[in-house]
Structures are given as C-alpha cells and as structure tokens.
Amino acid sequence: MRASLAAVALFPAYALATFSISSPSSSEFWVFNSSNSINWTSTEGDPTSFNIDIINLENTTLNGAFSIASGVANNLSFEVTDVTLVPGDNYICQFVNSSNITQIFANSSTFSVKPAGTTPASPVSASSAASSGSSGSATSGTSGSSTASGSAAGSSSTSNGASSFLTPKSAIIAAGVMGLAALAI
C-alpha cells in the first residue's frame, strides 16, 4: 500500500493539467510574417502561467524547441506577432512548465506555416472549441490576450531529445498502472 501511494506521489500536481490547445490546429495554419493566434481551454487548477514553445516534429525547419514566449498568463488566448517560422508542415505548439522545461502541459495538433500573402485560416475560438466536443471547460477568470513576436530564422536551438508527449490522460493512466504494479509487489 505504501509503495502505491509513493508511486502516485511521484506525479506532481501539474501532470494533471487539462489544457486543450484549439488553435493552431491541422485545419488552422499560421501565415509567415503576420500575427497568428494561440487559443486554448483550461479548467480550474491548471497552471496560471507557462511558456510556449514551437517544435517541428521532423526537425526539417527547426532544430529543437523554439521558445516564443515565457510566463504567459492563462488567459485562453495569446497573439504571436510577426511570425518568422520557415513555411512548412509538422509544427506543434507546446505549453511548458516555466520552472521545469522538461514538463509539457499540452501539445497542439500538427499545423502548417504558409508563405507570406496566404489568406489566414478562420480562427477557432476557445468557446466554439468547447461547444464542439472538446473536453474541458474555459475558466471564468481574467479574460484577454497577450502578444509576443519571435523569429526562428537562423535559430540554432538544441534539443536533448527529452521532450515529453505525455498527455494529462496518459499521465493519469501511467500513475494508475504504476500504482497497480506497486500493489502486485
């Protein structure tokens, strides 16, 4: 019994974050050299701030994580201005623990960055994503948006490959499996 409690205690509270990134998404791309939105849903108890990183899953346009903002308030929306990510596919947006960059709170679905001049995709709002079947509910706290600008052109960030794609649900399942394994011992 003590072993199972110890196994569950190893998972910090933030492993249970329930952010759901609604945009960018596979149906909502970003456009080079323009403003682009990040929208999400959140539930009570989620972190009040976090960092936002962009990753290219195939490392074709980025070499590791590219940090676009630090200490972002959990306001359900963030505006990224003057996006200079190389046009391409297989980007993801990650919400990362500000105190422990190896702890990933949420990942967006893959999205593309289109060349300058492309007509932007219609934005997906946090409220419409919640009403269309997305899990979680928006917090009723402070509303508003934040902005940042960044450039990945010529970026030479390095990655140690320690990025985790552990979702909140899989973290709970992993905790349960570890607890059951400890009980079996």
Overall spatial form: globular
Provide mean pLDDT, rounded. 70
Number of helices: 3
Count the domains. Answer: 1
Oligomer state of the chains in this structure = single chain
CATH architecture classification: Sandwich
Question: By helix and strand content, what is the structural category?
Answer: alpha+beta
Helical content stands at 10-25%
Count of extended strands:
10
Q: What summary fits the major beta sheet? A: 6 strands, mixed
Q: Report the uncertain regions.
A: 1-14, 126-184
CATH hierarchy, class: Mainly Beta
Signal peptide: 1-17
Protein name: Mitochondrial developmentally regulated MAPK-interacting protein
Region (Disordered): 122-162
Domain Yeast cell wall synthesis Kre9/Knh1-like N-terminal: 23-113
